[in-house]
Write a structure and sequence with these properties.
Elements lengths: L8 E5 L4 H12 L3 E5 L13 H12 L4 E4 L6 H15 L4 E4 L14 H29 L2 E6 L11 H21 L4 E7 L5 H4 L3 H9 L36 H7 L11 E3 L6 E2 L17 H11 L25
Helix pairs in contact: 1-8, 3-4, 4-5
């Protein structure tokens, strides 16, 4: 057991499995008391199981730490209030919020239903608001806090994940706004780009990658600007414990951001995947043109291709129409 977070209390949503479990365990190892929230749902958000949260609590307690389970849904505003209340009732305060909980409802946008869109945004983006809204009250009163919103490199754009990408990039903007609002109260807010071999990554069917590669679709997320690679052509990556795809790799950087040593880090996007820690650049102008009057469309047609958009890839170039099978005559 360490003591870098001795006396602190953390709430980890999605703490029963994968990346969230690793974060909860290491927070406890460093001395924090932990509320392990996990509704125990399937990858698509259906179902309910108290087992995952209880199992992590048992692991923490067996190692000499302090923890309690909560199985409310982050998509429910009152459920988020109960999570925070659980921390206050059992441990008397709340210092750290790690919003890791997430689901997938992958679908190309032309096949996506409103329910599939709403369900993903409800857990990721609305869930971030729900938990933050209740967590900031005790943090502001004590003038200290750490909020880590687990976004994703998929927020840079992933084919077949319009709902997930929108929710995850929305969390980045939310984190940057919160950093400005809450900084005067001693509360740091950062967005995390995690990674690893989890139930969510395993749920993406290989056929989807193959179809994107065949269509020449350029990858999003950490593959931004590069063509998708079919699984058969991708290099083998160890997913065993301790390997580069181990979900536990995310926890050390996350826990560091919760310590006093990270007091000046706020409003950032931090990558924690694999064996490296990364800081992503903020949005900024890459190229610009100007003149002392309004542009005309004709002038822009002449200037923009060479001055603004030269060399940028089309993430999904138009494909020629595919021949459709012709109906066969009856009896043929």
């Amino acid at each position: 057991m360490g003591n870098r977070l001795q006396g602190r209390v953390a709430l980890v949503t999605g703490g029963g499995r994968g990346i969230g479990r690793g974060v909860a365990l290491l927070l406890a190892e460093e001395g924090a008391a932990v509320v392990v929230n996990d509704a125990g749902v399937n990858v698509d958000g259906t179902g309910h199981d108290e087992g995952p949260a209880m199992q992590v609590v048992s692991e923490i307690v067996a190692a000499g730490g302090r923890a309690v389970a909560n199985t409310d849904s982050v998509a429910d505003f009152e459920g988020a209030r109960r999570m925070v209340q659980t921390a206050l009732e059992h441990f008397g305060r709340l210092d750290i919020l790690c919003h890791v909980a997430g689901i997938l409802r992958d679908r190309m946008v032309f096949n996506m239903t409103p329910e599939e869109w709403d369900a993903v945004l409800a857990v990721h983006l609305k869930g971030a608001f729900n938990t933050v809204r209740h967590a900031v009250e005790p943090m502001m009163a004590q003038r200290w806090g750490r909020i880590l919103l687990f976004s994703s490199g998929s927020g840079l754009g992933n084919s077949g994940q319009a709902n997930y990408s929108a929710a995850k990039e929305g969390m980045v903007g939310f984190a940057r706004a919160l950093a400005r609002e809450l900084g005067p109260y001693g509360i740091n807010v950062n967005a995390i780009y995690p990674g690893g071999a989890t139930r969510m990554t395993a749920s993406v069917p290989p056929q989807a990658r193959e179809r994107r590669a065949a269509a020449g679709i350029v990858g999003g997320g950490q593959l931004a600007g590069r063509a998708e690679v079919p699984p058969a052509a991708a290099p083998a990556v160890s997913e065993a414990e301790g390997g580069p795809r181990d979900p536990l790799n995310n926890a050390p950087t996350v826990v560091f951001l919760c310590t006093e040593a990270a007091a000046n880090i706020s409003g950032q996007v931090i990558g924690t995947s694999g064996w490296q820690a990364s800081r992503y650049s903020p949005r900024h102008v890459i190229r610009s043109i100007s003149r002392p009057r309004r542009w005309t469309v004709a002038e822009l047609m002449q200037v923009v291709p060479g001055a603004i958009t030269a060399g940028i890839p089309n993430p999904a170039p138009a494909q020629p129409p595919q021949p459709q099978p012709q109906p066969q005559p009856a009896g043929s």
